[in-house]
Amino acid sequence: MDFVLVDWLRILCGAWLVPHLIGKGLHYEKAGGTFEAAGFRPGKLFVGLTMVAEACAAVGLIFSIYPRIAALFGALVLLGAGYAVVKINGKNWRWQKMGPEYPIFWALVCLLTALV
């Protein structure tokens, strides 16, 4: 196989979604409460929808199955996570203050992989 750097970036974007997805699954009840706190009601429904979107994004990005659509799914989930972080923790930017910079950065990287 002849991989170019953007392929590795696409695969990494998908792989990094996997622990995010597993964390929601292992802590479904708590995640539902977090979604509720961010204004996504009913929380458990949004957790389930997010898990489906993350799973589709991860599989699509890792195995290059409709990778552009998968990258958009991933970006939407991560932008939602960034919004939730701001809604719950306030308008802090840095991670030390529970800011949204990480999910926003990750969402932008997913969007860039969708454009390439």
From TrEMBL:
<protein>
    <submittedName>
        <fullName>DoxX family protein</fullName>
    </submittedName>
</protein>
<feature type="transmembrane region" description="Helical">
    <location>
        <begin position="45"/>
        <end position="63"/>
    </location>
</feature>
<dbReference type="InterPro" id="IPR032808">
    <property type="entry name" value="DoxX"/>
</dbReference>
<dbReference type="Pfam" id="PF07681">
    <property type="entry name" value="DoxX"/>
</dbReference>
<keyword id="KW-1133">Transmembrane helix</keyword>
<feature type="transmembrane region" description="Helical">
    <location>
        <begin position="69"/>
        <end position="86"/>
    </location>
</feature>
<keyword id="KW-0812">Transmembrane</keyword>
<keyword id="KW-0472">Membrane</keyword>
